[in-house]
Design goal:
397 residues; alpha+beta; hpI Integrase, Chain A; 3 domains; elongated
C-alpha cells in the first residue's frame, strides 16, 4: 500500500526525525500505520503520494499528492487502498470492477508458473530457460490478467514488442512459437483466437555452418587432453550439449562403438526421435573405454560431470575457452560441432535417412539443407558420384 502522509507544519530536527512547528513550512510527514505505534490524537487531512511519468519526460517519475477521504486514519487507509486498486487496474488495462473479478486460477501469471513447473519436470534445463524467457517477454507485453481475455491483437502487439527488443527475426519467431505452445497448453490456441498463417513472424532459417578442418585442428591442438576429448565427442557423435552431458558409460556399446541417447532420471530427450543409436568412430570409443578403466568408473557414471557429480551443463564455456585460446574467429559454439558431424557424414556418402536417424531429426528438410552444401567439386564427392557409371565408359567404342 502507498504510505499515508499527513500535511503539517514541521521542521526537520535530525535524520528521519520531524517536529511540529507552528512557524515552519507545510511538509508531508509519513504516518506509522502499525497499530499500537500510531501517533496519539492524529487527525486529518491525510494524503497519499503517487508516482507517475513526468510531463516532459515520460521516463522520469514525479510525485503528486492526493487528498484521501476521511478525517480518521482508518478511513484514510481504506481510501488509499481504493486508489491503489484503481492504479493497479489501470496499469493492466482493466476497470476496477474487472480487476476485482479476476479468476485467480486462470490468471496469466499463475498459468505461466504452472506451465514452467511442468516443463521443468519433463524437459531439459535449456528448454525450461527458453520457455521462461519467452513467457517473461509475453507477460511484460500483454496487459491481460486472465488467460481467456487474451486476443489476436495481443499476440500481434507481442511481435511488435519483441522486435522492439532488437531481436533477430528468428528469435522473434522462436519466442512467438514458445508463447503459442503455452497458450495451447492453456486451452487457448492462437488459431482459436483468429491468428492467421500470415500473422506469424517469418521463420528465417540459419544457414548450416560447419567448422573447417583447419579450425578443428587448431582447436584440438590448443586444448588440453580432457578438453580435446570433449571436443572430439561433440565432433564425432553430433550429440547436443544436453545429450552429451547426460551420457553415461553404460550408454556406450564398446564392442560395436554405438552410443545410445536415452532418457535418465531427471532428464529427458528433446523429442521422441532424439532417442537413438549413433555410430561413432571406434578410436574415440576406445579412448572413453580406457578412461573408464583408468579412473575406476562404473557404467552408471556420467562421462562428463561437474564438481557435484551431476551433468556438466557448462560445456559451451569449455568450447569457447578453447576457441579463444586458439584465436578462432567467427561463430563458435557446441552446436556447430553437430552441424559439422552432419556435413562430414553426408560428404562421406551416408544417406539422408541414415543421418536423420543418427542426429534424431524427424523431418528430412533440415538434413537436405546440409546436403545442398556438399561441395560437388570436391574430388572424393565426384569420385563417389561417378563410380557407379565406370562400367559404361567404353561400351560401343
Amino acid at each position: 500500500m502507498n504510505a499515508i502522509y499527513t500535511r503539517m507544519k514541521a521542521i526537520k530536527i535530525g535524520r528521519g526525525k520531524w517536529q511540529a512547528d507552528p512557524n515552519g513550512t507545510w511538509r508531508y510527514v509519513a504516518v506509522n500505520l502499525g497499530r499500537g505505534r500510531r501517533p496519539d490524537n492524529l487527525q486529518g487531512p491525510f494524503y497519499t503520494r503517487i508516482l507517475g511519468p513526468g510531463k516532459k519526460d515520460p521516463l522520469k517519475k514525479v510525485q503528486s499528492w492526493q487528498l484521501l477521504d476521511g478525517d480518521t486514519l482508518d478511513a484514510a487507509i481504506k481510501s488509499a487502498g481504493t486508489i491503489e486498486s484503481a492504479l493497479d487496474a489501470k496499469a493492466k488495462g482493466l476497470t476496477v470492477e474487472e480487476a476485482d473479478n479476476v479468476d485467480g486460477t486462470n490468471r496469466l501469471s499463475t498459468k505461466i508458473a504452472e506451465f514452467c513447473a511442468e516443463i521443468e519436470a519433463i524437459k531439459a534445463k535449456r528448454t525450461l530457460q527458453a520457455y521462461s524467457n519467452s513467457l517473461a517477454y509475453f507477460a511484460e507485453s500483454c496487459k491481460r490478467v486472465n488467460v481467456q481475455d487474451i486476443t489476436r491483437k495481443d499476440l500481434l502487439s507481442f511481435q511488435t514488442y519483441l522486435r522492439g527488443q532488437e531481436m533477430s527475426e528468428r528469435s522473434v519467431y522462436n519466442n512467438f512459437l514458445n508463447t503459442a505452445v503455452f497458450l495451447k497448453w492453456c486451452g487457448v490456441s492462437p488459431k482459436s483466437l483468429g491468428v492467421k498463417k500470415g500473422d506469424w513472424p517469418e521463420k528465417s532459417e540459419r544457414e548450416p555452418e560447419a567448422y573447417t578442418e583447419e579450425e578443428i585442428s587448431t582447436m584440438l591442438n590448443a586444448a588440453n587432453p580432457e578438453e580435446r576429448l570433449l571436443l572430439n565427442c561433440f565432433l564425432c557423435s553430433g550429440l547436443r550439449a544436453g545429450e552429451l552431458a547426460n551420457l553415461t558409460y553404460g550408454d556406450i556399446d564398446f564392442k560395436h562403438s554405438i552410443w545410445t541417447v536415452q532418457p535418465k532420471d531427471g532428464w529427458n530427450t528433446k523429442t521422441r526421435e532424439s532417442q537413438r543409436d549413433v555410430p561413432v568412430a571406434g578410436w574415440l570409443t576406445k579412448k572413453l573405454h580406457a578412461r573408464m578403466k583408468t579412473n575406476g568408473r562404473k557404467e552408471s557414471d556420467l562421462i562428463f560431470f561437474n564438481g557435484n557429480g551431476g551433468p556438466n551443463l557448462h560445456m559451451l564455456r569449455i568450447v569457447k575457452r578453447v576457441a579463444k585460446r586458439a584465436k578462432l574467429a567467427g561463430r563458435v559454439d557446441d552446436h556447430k560441432f553437430r552441424s559439422t558431424a552432419i556435413t562430414v557424414w553426408l560428404r562421406s556418402g551416408n544417406t539422408v535417412p541414415d543421418v536423420m536417424k543418427w542426429v534424431g531429426h524427424a523431418k528430412p528438410e533440415t538434413i537436405l539443407r546440409y546436403a545442398a552444401k556438399v561441395n560437388l567439386r570436391d574430388a572424393e564427392t565426384r569420385k563417389r558420384a561417378e563410380s557407379g557409371f565406370a562400367q559404361f565408359a567404353n561400351v560401343g567404342d
